[in-house]
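Researcher: Quick one. four chains, 234 residues in total.
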Amino acid sequence: MSITTLSTTPQQLPRVDDCGSSPVVALDREEAERRAALLKALADPVRLQLLSIISASPNREACVCDMTEAVPVSQPTVSHHLKTLVDAGILTRERRGTWAWFRLDAARLDAIRGFLA
Amino acid sequence: MSITTLSTTPQQLPRVDDCGSSPVVALDREEAERRAALLKALADPVRLQLLSIISASPNREACVCDMTEAVPVSQPTVSHHLKTLVDAGILTRERRGTWAWFRLDAARLDAIRGFLA
DNA sequence: TCTCAATGTTGACACACGTCGATACAACTG
DNA sequence: CAGTTGTATCGACGTGTGTCAACATTGAGA
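Model:
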């Protein structure tokens, strides 16, 4: 997956009544929407903070109780953001007794980095 | 810049009345907002399509006239999206006579990829 | 089973965002 | 200078999103 699309048309000489560009094929609409959905899940300061906490924690996993303390929003809002990230496939949730633990999905993050190349 | 933050606390043994995690420092709020703003500029299917067109064009630059044809929205909407990307520093605009040309800012894209590492 | 603590869900609100038609601006051409 | 074409801005509308208080749910342990 790459944000770039191969050009299929050779370069043309500019004409006076034309900007002289060579039209190329845009990224497929459905793929663009999939990628936008992933980026949208990342595009929030609170969610970036939550991800940084998980990423910096031992075993790269974190409990909700730690995250609510480290972020300037209420507990329901933290839960909402975590759900957003889980739904996007960026985090996985695991319940251990009373506490809920979250881990990063490395493959999903690789994919995101990949289509920004 | 990295999404990860170094852990400054050693791992603890779990206790019964505690989830047993080691609290870590979250990403700085201001930095999180800067990164979120950049990601938000990318997190739209139309803008991803526009970027793909520019990236795939000869000399990695594209004219508005080509983009309006390749994307399923009106010309004012294309102009709006391009302004969003320029404001975010992801694109640069250059006027050549009647036409407006846009190029990617490679450093800005590198930075975005960087803090997803 | 009952209670308590941790977590998730719901409903409501304010605000941001994508979209378009109408219009304004800019630059080439006659 | 006037007309034409490409591009940008404005105003308005509907939708999406972040937030919280209130409530529901889950699981541990007495």
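Residues 56 and 87 of chain A are 22 Å apart (CA to CA).
Researcher: Thanks, that's what I needed.
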